[in-house]
Amino acid sequence: MAMPMESPISFTNIGKIRWWQRGIFASQTGYVLLALAVLLVIMHFASPYFFTEGNMQNVAKNFSFIAIATLGVTFVIITGGIDLSVGSMMCFSAMITSMVMTELSTPGGLGASLFVHMAADGKTVLANVPGLILLVSILAGLGVALIGGLVNGFCIAVLGLSPFVTTLGMLSIVRGLGYVVSNGRGSFPGGPDADYFYALTSGDVLGVPAPFIYLVILALAMAVVLHHSAFGRHVFALGGNEKAAELTGIPVVRVKIEVYVICALAAGLQGIIISGWLGSAPANMATSYELNVIAAAVIGGANLAGGIGGPLGAIVGCVLLEVIRNGLVLAQVSSYWQQTLVGVIIILAVLVDRIRSRMI
Amino acid sequence: MASAEARPVLELSGIGKEFGAIRALHDVDMHVLPGEVVGLMGDNGAGKSTLVKIIAGNFRPSHGEIRFAGSAVHFNRPIDARAVGIEVVYQDLALADNLTAAANVFLGRELKRKFGPLALLDHKAMAARALELFGELRSETRPDDLVKQMSGGQRQAVAIARTRLSNARLVMMDEPTAAISVRQVEQVLGLIHRLKEQGVAVMLISHRMPDVFAVCDRVIVMRRGEKRADKPIHETSPEEVTALITGAKEAA
Fold first, then answer.
1. Transmembrane segments in this chain: where (chain A) (predicted)?
2. Do B121 and A224 touch (CB under 8 A)?
3. Is the overall model pTM greater than 0.90, yes or no?
């Protein structure tokens, strides 16, 4: 039905949006990134230790510990939802991973005969297939996160419960389950594969911390999914106008369930990585981390009303929080100030965005 | 074209709808020809919206039959109606403000390119096709601009361009001129003419008498769930239609 155009459209009274008024330059992510750059320069002059290799590694490692979960929660925030259960999910996934690892590595334990055997000396436990226990236990940890995400998504998308209430309930449920399965004591990775586990979670490659490498890979994958796949487009559409998404035939229920599953899986993976660095998964691990994660996402430009957000913003938010924390330590300011400052920055970031959007 | 025009694209016979004890529609017969613009008028609660929702597949009729392009159809969901070629431009336009014009046009029907196992969005093709559609509609709309930065007329163009993707044969427009400026009303009426030129049947649901008389070939008046009039536009007048809507005149 395409008819030949009589003349190309002329844009007589509609100006072109200038480059600095669009894309990243016009976004909260853009000027938070700018603020971060300024902060880095200030830190460089304020402390000679800031730009040392050791400190940079430290910073990279520390922000990677919340950034992967922030990527996940950013998906949910873009759809206009919220997930408060990420902190609990981190703990529970990590706990299940180390419990399964220990159980499978203990001769006489449930199913252990499939995975380990005694060495000739009768004391050392050897893995039948090196790395298999690690794989199974990480899959078990991610499996419980998957179930948690599915329950969240089902309650929100199918039953129509509010995301805030559902995930607040899940925060408590999952934390409680963590105490139940570990009897309140937490758990420790153990067995012949524990060394691999520590190498994969808290090791480094050519001086780059492993968590940071995972973060970069996941962030790139997220950027592709959000901006170059139909799923990503539907995630944005859902946050922009849910009714429109429904009317245009987008499978709204499926997309919603998928974002909560992605968020839970990211939290689970994050928890497993943190437990590798801690060397254990205590039952109170990652308590209230959901607040740091959501704060980082919001500082980085994700809009809690939905429709806006991305991996760069999530990372920038996490880096900013960590640089401030690190900076306060180097400047020998009491670390108790950190929380106060984080709160101020959340409000400032959102305030500046508000002022900017009124000016245009 | 002449032989096709003789056959109605949409025929309703004996359509009725009850919601519990409330009779929203009773025994409505009507037809729409290809390339015809039909105005659907009536006061609030007259049954216009119910009728539109039945045709669009939001509701199933309690009685009667819908025939589309000659064959009986049963819609369970809006997607079923869209599949046969019925598109609706909703009153609030169903646009996602945070996406570009092109993204909105292709929402739910994105064009993709295969990269090995991955199907990624084909941004170039979508922008080019959207620009082509805006050109057909003579709307000064850039495919890459965000919808939230657009005027009411441009937003209408985006919503209407969406209906042109699938070669719809019937486009129903719910109050397209209700909330926009005079200049933009002109643009929207122009858009309706473009659709007509291309042989698309249009049903215009509107409260605005001048708009209906400016673009429609025929006007159907609903009152209390029944069709009270169905007249070529040149055989009636705004005064008569007003009388029919308010009930001052029972039927024509």
1. 31-51, 63-82, 94-120, 132-161, 212-231, 259-279, 291-324, 336-355
2. no
3. no
